[in-house]
Amino acid sequence: MARIIVVTSGKGGVGKTTTSAAIAMGLAKRGHKTAVIDFDVGLRNLDLIMGCERRVVYDFVNVINGEAGLNQALIRDKNCDQLYILPASQTRDKDALSQEGVGRILDELKKDFKYIVCDSPAGIEKGAHLAMYFADDAFIVTNPEVSSVRDSDRMLGILSSKSRRAEQNEEPIKEYLLLSRYSPDRVKLGEMLSVNDVQEILSLHLLGVIPESKSVLNASNSGIPVILDEKSDAGQAYADIIARYLGEDRPHRFIDEKKGLFGKLFRSR
Amino acid sequence: MLESVQFLTNQIQRMSTDSQQNTHHSPVLEFKSSTFSVPVLVLANNDLIAIEQQLQEKIHQAPEFFKNSPLVFDLQELNNLNLDTNINKLVNIIRKLDLLPIGIRGGSAQQNQQALKLGIPSHSGHINHNPATSPEKQKPQTPEPEIAPEPQFVTVNSTLITHPVRSGQRIYASGDLIILAQVSAGAEILAEGNIHVYGSLRGRALAGVQGDTEARIFCSDLQAELISIAGNYKISEDLNGAAPNQPVQIYLQDHTLIIKDI
Ligand SMILES: Nc1ncnc2c1ncn2[C@@H]1O[C@H](COP(=O)(O)OP(=O)(O)O)[C@@H](O)[C@H]1O
Ligand SMILES: [Mg+2]
Known about the structure:
The structure holds two protein chains of two kinds. Chain A has helices at 16-29, 46-49, 60-64, 70-73, 99-110, 126-133, 146-162, 164-167, 184-188, 195-202, 214-222, 233-245, 261-266, and strands at 3-8, 34-38, 75-76, 83-86, 115-119, 137-142, 174-182, 205-211. Chain A is α/β, with parallel strands linked by helices. In chain A, α1 crosses α12 (233-245). Chain A is globular, with a radius of gyration of 18 Å. Chain B has helices at residues 48-61, 63-66, 76-80, 87-96, 109-117, and strands spanning 2-8, 35-42, 70-74, 100-105, 122-123, 153-155, 158-161, 170-173, 176-179, 188-191, 195-201, 204-207, 217-222, 226-229, 232-235, 248-253, 256-261. In chain B, the strands form three sheets. Chain B has a six-stranded mixed β-sheet. Chain B has a six-stranded mixed β-sheet with strand order 7-9-11-13-16-17, with no helix packed on it. A five-stranded mixed β-sheet of chain B has the order 8-10-12-14-15, with no helix packed on it. By secondary structure, chain B is α/β, with parallel strands linked by helices. Chain B contains five helices and 17 strands. Chain A binds chain B through residues 1, 3, 150, 153-154, 156-158, 160-161, 169-172, 174-175, 200-201, 203, 205, 207, 244-248, and chain B through 11, 13-14, 16-22, 24-26, 30-34, 163-169, 181-182, 184-187, 199-200, 202. Chain A: Keywords: ATP-binding, Cell cycle, Cell division, Nucleotide-binding, Septation. Chain A: Belongs to the ParA family. MinD subfamily. Chain A: This is Septum site-determining protein MinD. Chain A: It comes from Candidatus Methylobacter oryzae.
């Protein structure tokens, strides 16, 4: 059975697109045929992060409108042949998506793909609603600050009452917390919420903590999902997340503050 | 007395572990959650002949409503009065009148056992009461009333919520509201009756919203944005004294909200 994963948050700029690209690549690298869809109509940037912006011919809206077939619009990833990208339209607005149309395309994708990752736009309006409506699993991307946590909580409420699963009284969407742009040093200074703070407020299963990392910017500049940068901390964090999602046991990392040079040399704290 | 009760079968969710992702074989069954109302037959007397007679009269008034209706019978009051009931005979009467007993409430351990033998599970709507070990046993036996009290309809609802109430969500209960999870900041829960929250209460909680000044709020961790009983409210600023993780009850006394540790 195919599984639809929505990557969502409520708030913008928290790392949804970064995460969508990384986990789609992670799942595909594990041999699962995966499609990743950009729901951010009018503000497309998943294709940039995936480095396929120059190969876009047709987009999600074209497929919904029947102007192109799914196979014409899906772009095969240059690094992994199990991964396909369905880009958003840059020239339409969000009203171009309809629930019926999105449902139809997802049903078609489900026949062929194991995982379908939906990169949600920010907000709780139509685009975000459509991205989460058909989901089986939700990856809630949250930054360790009060407003981001509050928006995630709001989104969780929407998932549990407005999704297809909720409306049809099916088993609820499985919700996972991904705490992103985490900086233990700043937590220590009291500038950010800690993992425990966030978990206490959201009471949600923690799938992983992604550290604040320069490697993310480097990756997006070169159009390669950060999970392929295996030496980087953020890349490893996403690899852990995929492993846990697939049922493997991985201890949490990147939660404690980095030891300075002094600490490294003397192994003191 | 007949009252109606709402059942909310607990959602049996997949546990939140990561491991289930491995097995995607298509399921042949699933558990869903649903709420439904069932009439409850509350007995005030163990005179089976009177029960049969009055039940028949009640059914006669609304035969369509009662035909093959599921029914829960409640023995709490009888047991409080130390009046024993023959479960077999009672169930026979109920079934003879084309009602389908689906539960016993307020029965003693022995009565529950008897009911179970007849395929009727016990519901813990009340605290189970065991006449054999009850302190009331020592009390003088209450004299049997000459005429059994007229059965009457009372609607007692309680709404049970087992999942977190998130920011932006609003829950209204026409009776009591029981929440077994947290209530997030930015969420709002309202009840015409009492409110119980067995988790952190961080949102707004309004009890007695139709003016019931006797309504109370009970919670295990008070961090609310606002609490109100029958329109008398306190906002979070006024609640600064409340210690975290300390169970409290909130009630109204002379138009003032009193917050008291439990
Ligand atoms: N772990 C991280 N460390 C540092 N920067 C990050 C991290 N995750 C995301 N970013 C940066 O944050 C910005 C927003 O990320 P993006 O994934 O586009 O968020 P969203 O899709 O939620 O709007 C981008 O500039 C991205 O490079
Ligand atoms: Mg984005």
